[in-house]
């Protein structure tokens, strides 16, 4: 509310009495009215003199007529005339007497309210509370000054019709009134009116602007206008200084914009530059429209310094473009029809801001596209964006984002869009940042996976959909070769990703590509790359099935020199046993000895060997049967956990593939569809390296051999029982002779194939032969089936020294003759 000095009762009462005297004689001839009018003039003169001297004096006074207002649109002297002829005459007499004063007509609204009051001693009672305000204020010509002006108590000299209002029956009443303002106080009155809000400031400035260009007292209003502008600018400067010191908030930019524009209208360039310095943010659009109108009477060179300040207040490219585009009425283009100086200045500002903007080029391109779409494919923006993206072609997602938005802008010719695509797309395969999106995940876009690790939330990242949309646009515009090159480049870049990044970046891309229906017109080369992508996904995120390490069957040898069986020299039985123990690929040893003592000797030696057991069998035509088996040692204790984890990854991959649109996926993969869905690419290598060939007849016989050599409870017969059952064994039917035996089994610990060495013996030696010399003449062969399925070693014993041979490797190793 405006501030008022303390108003002495004498001035207000004198003014009320003088107006009352004029009203009494206003209908009389002029000579009868003259004394009353002179009295009113003297009172007004005393008021002016009191204002020049120190002391409390009212800035303005309000006189209310006894005329009820019927809410005419513009209350003026004619509206008073229609209601009361004498009031009209009174108004004219007041007008003649108020030289050096401003006189305005308006409607005063009185609102009466009843409030409950209590002082804590007496019972609560009702009190009247009245508020007054001007609802519209106009000069005598009907020009609007302000829409709303609150009136403090004491500013009304005569209440007139408003005194009859009853708060109970009529809580609101309106009446016609006049306000008398001394000329010297008029600017202060206007200044206080500007404090009531943006609308009040605009109305007052518009009123002064109108009065400065029309009427007979333009010079007076220009002086008032200039004083008001200076005062308001000074207020904004003080506020801005306070905000810099205390950071209390932004300035009221709309009134400031009106003030700056009216400074130009009044040709006050200095005040204009002072006003625009008070902007803390970009000026509102109304300011630039005012600047555009001011160009009709001011040269651009006069305003350019202030406009530079205004442009610097625009914090981003978007606000700067909107402002400058408003300045030229949407005419920013390569060939502007506006002033050459203005167009050059605008383009320079835009170019400087684009070069100095440290924002991500993707955001710059997004801004340019949004502005281009808003302004019907503005050619200037399109060319600037294209130039920007060519210079930042290494940031591939920026270009892709731009082209996707460009494709959807209405108003751009399809041929122009195709030309831009054909210019930028061939450059993309040479870029090295195609996975920029998945390597720079925005903060806050993470979620917890099933085991508690933080992974990017794919639903918050739009890059797979963005890239797939772009590839579809390229295929539509006939750029299939470029799509193939980009997918090749993407696959190369993806090779450097970790498995967890691959699953949430590349896999969504492959899903979206299939679901968009591009399979119908994607060339065969693109389909091949798609198949390789899925194979890479399986290899990276699932991996080859883990295999158990090959067991090492090597055992420490036993003492073969001067043993209990061969007291002198090297024992042939122990030597043969050591040959089996030190063989890393042999897991079992099937033999027959000539006597029970020899069987017992081998049994005891086996007990000395590490992790070996001996199973004794019946006496056959070969001799006393023995089966020595090496017990397996778990060489990979983590194998089971590894395989369980691999199975889990395999199931997750199968689930992800099942979510892809299967008809489109089948069309993309063609004959490779079943191969991918069954994950043969990661199973084939595993089968070759880890799979088991079908058991041979010899291996089947070896399995039954273990069962035949076992006792009733599935264990070998203890060697201590052999003497007692010796006679029983000798009376048993001898098995059908066989010159060759090949026995094998499967290790229960590893599932690997065991191997054996077979040594046939007779129960007695021919006359004249020792055991060693007799072994030189018989035809004896032993077959070893190793744990490596690709290698089969055959050891033949006869008149020559036997050798180990591996067909798979082509390597041979010397083998010692077995002599018992």
UniProtKB/TrEMBL annotation:
It comes from Lophiotrema nucula. Residues 709-770, 799-820 are annotated as: Disordered. The lineage of its organism: Eukaryota, Fungi, Dikarya, Ascomycota, Pezizomycotina. This is Uncharacterized protein. Residues 731-770 have a biased composition (Polar residues).
């Amino acid at each position: 509310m405006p501030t008022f000095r303390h108003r002495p009762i004498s001035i207000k009462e004198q003014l009320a009495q003088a107006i009352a005297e004029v009203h009494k004689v206003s209908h009389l001839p002029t000579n009868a009215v003259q004394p009353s009018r002179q009295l009113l003039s003297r009172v007004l003169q005393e008021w002016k003199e009191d204002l020049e001297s120190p002391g409390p004096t009212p800035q303005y006074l309000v006189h209310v007529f006894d005329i009820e207002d019927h809410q005419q649109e513009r209350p003026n002297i004619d509206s008073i005339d229609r209601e009361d002829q004498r009031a009209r005459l009174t108004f004219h007499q007041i007008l003649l007497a108020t030289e050096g004063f401003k006189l305005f007509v308006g409607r005063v609204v009185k609102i009466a309210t009843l409030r409950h009051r209590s002082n804590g001693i007496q019972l609560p009672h009702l009190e009247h509370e009245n508020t007054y305000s001007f609802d519209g204020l106009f000069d005598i010509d009907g020009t609007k000054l302000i829409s709303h002006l609150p009136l403090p108590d004491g500013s009304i000299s005569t209440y007139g019709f408003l005194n009859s209002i009853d708060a109970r029956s009529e809580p609101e009443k309106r009446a016609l009134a006049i306000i008398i303002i001394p000329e010297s106080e008029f600017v202060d009155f206007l200044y206080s009116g500007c404090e009531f809000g943006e609308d009040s400031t605009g109305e007052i400035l518009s009123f002064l602007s109108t009065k400065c260009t029309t009427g007979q007292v333009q010079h007076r209003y220009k002086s008032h206008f200039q004083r008001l502008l200076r005062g308001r600018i000074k207020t904004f400067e003080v506020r801005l200084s306070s905000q810099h010191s205390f950071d209390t908030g932004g300035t009221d930019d709309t009134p400031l914009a009106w003030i700056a524009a009216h400074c130009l209208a009044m040709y006050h360039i200095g005040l204009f530059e002072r006003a625009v310095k008070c902007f803390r943010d970009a000026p509102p659009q109304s300011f630039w429209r005012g600047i555009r109108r001011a160009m009709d009477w001011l040269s651009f060179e006069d305003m350019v310094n202030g406009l530079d300040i205004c442009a610097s207040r625009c914090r981003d490219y978007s606000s700067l473009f909107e402002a400058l585009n408003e300045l030229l009425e949407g005419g920013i283009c390569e060939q502007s029809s506006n002033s050459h100086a203005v167009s050059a200045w605008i383009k320079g500002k835009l170019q400087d801001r684009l070069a100095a903007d440290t924002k991500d080029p993707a955001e710059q391109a997004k801004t340019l596209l949004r502005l281009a779409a808003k302004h019907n494919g503005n050619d200037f923006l399109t060319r600037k964006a294209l130039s920007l993206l060519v210079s930042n072609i290494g940031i591939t997602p920026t270009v892709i984002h731009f082209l996707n938005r460009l494709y959807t802008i209405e108003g751009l010719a399809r041929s122009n869009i195709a030309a831009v695509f054909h210019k930028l797309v061939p450059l993309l395969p040479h870029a090295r940042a195609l996975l920029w999106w998945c390597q720079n995940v925005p903060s806050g876009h993470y979620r917890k996976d099933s085991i508690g690790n933080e992974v990017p939330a794919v639903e918050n990242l739009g890059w797979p959909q963005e890239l797939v949309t772009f590839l579809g646009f390229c295929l539509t515009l006939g750029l299939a070769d470029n799509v193939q090159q980009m997918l090749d480049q993407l696959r190369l870049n993806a090779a450097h990703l970790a498995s967890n990044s691959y699953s949430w970046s590349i896999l969504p891309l492959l899903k979206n590509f299939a679901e968009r229906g591009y399979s119908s017109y994607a060339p065969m080369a693109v389909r091949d790359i798609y198949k390789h992508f899925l194979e890479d996904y399986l290899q990276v995120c699932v991996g080859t099935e883990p295999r158990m390490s090959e067991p090492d069957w090597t055992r420490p040898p036993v003492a073969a020199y001067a043993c209990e069986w061969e007291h002198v020299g090297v024992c042939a039985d122990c030597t043969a046993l050591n040959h089996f123990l030190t063989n890393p690929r042999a897991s079992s040893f099937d033999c027959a000895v000539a006597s029970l003592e020899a069987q017992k000797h081998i049994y005891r030696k086996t007990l000395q060997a590490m992790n070996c057991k001996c199973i004794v069998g019946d006496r056959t035509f070969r001799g006393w049967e023995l089966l020595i088996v090496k017990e397996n040692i778990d060489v990979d204790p983590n194998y089971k956990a590894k395989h369980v984890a691999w199975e889990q990854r395999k199931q997750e991959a199968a689930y992800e593939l099942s979510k892809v649109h299967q008809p489109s996926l089948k069309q993309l993969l063609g004959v490779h569809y079943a191969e991918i869905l069954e994950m043969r690419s990661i199973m084939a290598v595993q089968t070759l390296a880890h799979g088991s060939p079908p058991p041979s007849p010899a291996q089947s016989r070896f399995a039954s051999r273990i069962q035949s050599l076992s006792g009733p409870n599935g264990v070998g017969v203890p060697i201590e029982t052999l003497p007692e059952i010796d006679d029983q064994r000798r009376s048993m039917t001898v098995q059908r002779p066989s010159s060759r035996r090949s026995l094998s089994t499967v290790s229960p610990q590893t599932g690997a194939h065991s191997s054996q060495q077979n040594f046939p013996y007779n129960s007695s030696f021919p006359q004249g032969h020792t055991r060693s010399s007799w072994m030189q003449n018989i035809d004896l062969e032993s077959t070893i089936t190793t744990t490596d399925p690709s290698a089969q070693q055959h050891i033949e014993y006869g008149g020559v020294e036997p050798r180990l041979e591996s067909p798979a490797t082509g390597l041979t190793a010397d083998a010692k003759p077995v002599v018992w």
